[in-house]
Amino acid sequence: MSSPPAASHSPAIERAQSADDERLDSERAGQRLTLILFAGILALAIIGTTVSVVASSVMHGGRTTAPRTSTLANVNTGASSPQHISLSVVPGSKPGPKGEKYDAFSKTNFAVKVGRPLQLTIDNKDDAVHSITAASAGVNVVVMPGVHTYTIVVGRAGRFKWICAYPCDPYSMATVGYMQGYITAT
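Now predict its structure.
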């Protein structure tokens, strides 16, 4: 005599497996969403960099190679020849409030005459790219590693905050006097 076949799963086991399957599906969906968001952020960063390079190229007569030259003016003499400033970017060079060392530009505030050139000779001692970016002043200097001269021109009067637009030391990027400063155009 044969006995009836045993049930392979009880209803409680089936519900538990169903709950496990739903949890795994939810985790997979979360992982897919995370990957999609990361890909979107990466795509936006690439698009933003491309737009910045193209816009800068258009503003500088089609030149796309670094270093770029930009212009600002001689505030003290009023002369039409460009003022010249030498500065550097040094990683881990400037002490913070607790004595830690942070990345910094050696000079972060610039005074210029509207429409007149300022030449910046910048010795970027870091192997990373930095920038002096003040969109409201029309200034975007991409500071490549090594020593390069850039010229900037500000087209209107005002006090414009500039930042380093390239990710570097988080404290420095958030603090005036390190990777931020002001351009004052009169």
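The helical segments are 11-59, 170-173.
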